[in-house]
Each structure stands twice: as structure tokens, then as C-alpha cells.
Amino acid sequence: MDVVEARVASNVRVAAGVFLLKLEGKYSAAPGQFYMVRAWARDPLLSRPLSVFDRDENGISFLYGVRGRGTELLSRLSPGDAVGLTGPLGNGWPQRAGRIALVGGGLGIAPLYYAAKILRNADVYLGFADAPYLVDEFARVAARVLVSSETGAGGTEGVVTDIFRPDGYDACYACGPLPMLAALDRVCRRAEVPLHVSLEARMACGVGACLGCAVRTVHGYARVCRDGPVFPASEVIWDG
Amino acid sequence: MGDMTVVVGGLRLKNPVIAAAGTFGFGAEYGEIYDPARLGAVCTKGLTLRPRDGNPPPRLHETACGLLNSIGLQNPGIDAFIREELPRMKEQGITVIANVWGDSPAEYEQAVARLCDSPVDAIELNVSCPNVSQGGPVGEDARRTARVVRRARRACTVPLWVKLPPAGGIAVARAAQEEGADAVSTVNTFRGMAIDIETGRPVFANVVAGLSGPAIKPIALRIVYELAGALTIPVVGIGGISDWRDALEFIMAGAHAVQVGTANFVDPLAAVRIVAGLERYMDEKGIGNWEVIRGSAQR
Questions:
Q1: Hey, which bits of B70-219 come out as E strands?
Q2: pLDDT digits 0-9 by tens, A47-65
Q3: Which end of chain B is more exposed for a tag (fewer CB within 10 A), N or C?
Q4: How close, in Å, is residue A214 to chain B by CA atoms?
Q5: Is B44 near chain A, with CB under 8 Å?
Q6: A47 vs chain B: nearest CA distance in angstroms?
């Protein structure tokens, strides 16, 4: 884990309110890990936890949606601007062999791209509220990409759980809204396919010290930042 | 080079910068970024006799230059701390201040007794957690505080600090002093709240949560100034300290040492950066020891 200052290479709007931030430099990360990111002094106070979208020898990138003041400030970054990074943090996706399905809903697609790139032969299911984005990028690194859209724009009309069938997969990795993950859990349980979910939570420290990002599991409260963000779905208490 | 060491209520520290309870775990996480033994001391996460689950999420809410938390003293319990965390901390050379909470004077006494059988360097009685007590923390009432400190003092063979809430005032601090506290540390978080305007309901299940961060610094500084002027035992200043300049203000207000809490979340290196900043300040000003400037604002 390092605390460093990085430079913005690019900060591109990929959809309404969705940006892809690329930073220059060599940063380590395993698929599914995240960094605490900030580009301001004390207002807002805390850094923002962002999943690693992609990394290579030249840089690291983060996909984020503009939700509040922090992400709004991130969206205004220009090439050359300074960004504070702490990471890589969290456990990341498990390393499993076999046929893996990656399922993302909305911004939940963020931690799946790097996983698809490393896995090479994963099937990717992407669900969007409206017009899809970054589908071509996923298509370049995945075996297959299936897309749903609630408005029907650019994909099968519906939600991602409408187009995903777990049969034949050795494992499924998913990220997205809690109702989506809970629905996937039911589907995967029935098919006896292990499901791992990446959870999101408000975080203060990001490193496991403050216990602010607690999530209820069958083992008691777990820290999303340290014990996760990836959990076996069978351990998560969805109505917790 | 100036002498960074300071003796606070019977405890000798290599420098006056302490990681505040609840913001630094048991030092293992930040220990991956820097050696916590570089700090004057580390206050542990608030400990209780038995393990505690803590409060249901959400536990955090960001405010303007501040942070509301409702962690609720989630901790593994004193025995697990002594068995699993303390040996590693001592091995690393960390000066360990065990922060302790009890839900009765008897429980404080038992908890303190247990810790005094371990190699902790000092105990900080937490009578100020805003997230667990009914009807406000003990430390807002002088008589209740006196009872707890008396029982704890009886069991305590190491330096005993009492961590006070911002609303206790001088009467509570004097009560702690009269019952034999070696130092007081203040302020714990302010009791605040937030409301979700979509639901019209409080954000936190407990309604009230603890406010920390730069937003509280001027108020915390005023409280430290008042207590340092009124007490004969040392005061450890806490509240929104983000950099070495903030730390210096608390020392000039009369604090013997400072605790850095929420700033660790803002910058994982905040506490060691403050140590370095204070060192530089001493050198540049040619200050030999902290007594030269401590309480300068009181004079």
C-alpha cells in the first residue's frame, strides 16, 4: 500500500455523468482492488474509494459516476492535474480457474474490466439503466459480452439478471446495486455456482482502521475496505 | 536539535503526537504505510471487557469539513486485545495507551484491572463515547465521572488518563483530577446528527453520532485552553488537528501532547507528517523543549 501523488493523463466522459479517469505512472493492483482517491484539500474531507477499472505499465484508470461533491470535483480534472492515491486496497476477486461469468450493473461494471482482461476468456454481462457505454472495450478483452438496458437502448430490454443464466459457469463475479446482487445470489445458489460480489460502502480510512464501512455477514460485521470489497455472496446478509 | 520528548501524566513519550482512539485500529493497518513507533504513542480502538459488535450501518456521514461517526465501540474485547494485538504492538516498540469503556463503574474497574496485568503503557478511560450511552456520556456529569475515575484509579497501576467529551466543562475535568487522574485528554467527538431529506429520518439508527474533523478544531482548542488554565494535571489536546500548525496551536493553548484522529483518514501519513513538522519547527525556531512554548497563549 502506497500513498502517492499521481498526474491525470485523461478524464473522459463516457456517458451522462460517467467518467473514466486515467492517471500516469506505474501502480500495482489486482483485479477487484481499489484506491482511495482525492483531488482536493479538506472539502470534502474524505477521499473517495474507486475500483480499479484498468491498469498497465503506463497508468491506472478509474470509472466513476458523478454522485456528489467529491465525484463532481473529480469530473473537472484535466490532464496534468494532481490526484492523491492511497492503495491498492482490499482483497480483489478470487483467482479461480474455469469458466467465469462477470456480471455488472451500472457503475458496477467498474471492477470487471481489469478482471476480464486478466481472465481472458470470461463472459461478461453488462446491465445499464439507459444507453450502454464501454461495451466495445469489454468486447476486446472478453470471450462474449451480453448487454441489457432498462430502456432497451443498445441492448436487450430489461435488467442484467434477465439476460444472465448461471448454468455452465464455474463461478460468477458481480458488482452492482444490492437488489441486483441479492437476485443473482438466489439464481446462483439454485444453480450451485459460487458467486462473489464486490460491495460498495461509505468509507473513511479505506485501510481497515476506522470500522466505518461495516457490512453484516454470517461471521458478524466485516469491513468492506479490508475484509472485502469482494465477499462470497453466501456470507452476505442482504437485509442486514 | 530540540528535545521532542514530553512526559504526560507519568508517561514518557518520544514526541507529543499520539494516534487517537478509534482512528488507528491497533496500529496494524497504518503499520503497512509507516512504523507507528515513530509516533509518541498509539491509543487503541476503544476496548470493553467483552467483545462488542458495534452499531448497524450506516456508521459514517460526511459533513462540511467534518465527519459524523456511529461505530459504537466495535472491538474484540480486552482479552483478545491482550492476546492478539498487544504483543505485536509492543514488539514493534509502540507506546500503547489502552482506551477503555465500561457500562458501569464496576466494569471500568474490572477492565482497568485486567489491562494493568498486561504490558500496556497507560490507560485512557473513555467516559465520552457519544455512540453507546443512554442519556449522554458519563463524562458530561461530574459526579458520574468521579465515581468511574475513583473505581478505575483503585485498580490502576499505570498512568491513568481520562478522555473527556466536549460538553463536560471544567467541573468534570476537576472531578477527574481530584479522583487521581494523571492527565485528561479532550475533546472526544461532539454529539451531532444528520437527517436524510429523502426519508425525513435521521441518518443514524442511534440518531446522535460523533462529529470530528477540522470543523470542530476552534471549539476543541478553546476547551483545551480553558482546561489547561484550570487544571494542575496535563491536558492532551484533541479535535480536528490536521497538520503541525494545528498541533502547535494546541500546545500553545497549554496541551502537553496532541492526538490525531480523523486526519489519519484524510491523509494516512498525517500523524507522522505532524511529527516531522513539529521537529522542523523546533529546529527553525531554536526551541530546546516544549516548555518554552507550552501554554504561551495562557500568559
A1: 96-100, 122-126, 160-163, 183-186, 190-192, 195-196, 201-202, 209-212
A2: 999 999 999 999 999 999 9
A3: C
A4: 6
A5: no
A6: 7
Taking only the tens place, the pLDDT of each residue in B263-287 is: 999 999 999 999 999 999 999 999 9
Q: Residue B135 contacts by C-beta under 8 Å, 6 or more apart in sequence?
A: none
Give which of A159, A22, A142 is closest to A83, Cα–Cα: A22
Integer Cα distance of B39 and A65 in angstroms: 38
Q: Where are the beta strands (DSSP E) in A2-136?
A: 2-15, 18-24, 34-38, 48-55, 59-65, 82-89, 100-105, 123-128
A209 in contact with chain B, both atoms CB, cutoff 8 A: yes
Pairing of strands B257-260, B17-19: parallel
At B27 the pLDDT is 97
Q: Is the dihedral of CA A96, A102, A108, A111 positive or negative?
A: positive
Decide if pLDDT at B93 tops 80: yes
Q: Which residues of chain A have pLDDT under 50?
A: none
Residue B196 touches chain A, beta carbons under 8 Å: no
- Predicted confidence at residue B136, as pLDDT, reads 78
What's the confidence (pLDDT) of residue B134?
Answer: 67
Residue A80 makes CB contacts below 8 A (sequence gap 6+) with A7, A8
Contacts of B45 in chain A (CB under 8 A): 211
- How distant is the Cα of B185 from the closest Cα of chain A, in angstroms? 20
Would you call A67 an interface residue with chain B, using a CB distance cutoff of 8 Å?
no
State the pTM of this model: 0.96
Residue A207: which of B53, B65, B268 has the nearest Cβ? B268
User: Alpha-carbon distance A99 to A170, whole Å?
Assistant: 5
Q: B43 an active-site residue?
A: no
| pLDDT (0 to 100) of residue A240 | 60
- Reduce the DSSP state of residue B245 to 3 states and report it: helix
Residues of B in contact with A201 (CB under 8 A): 57
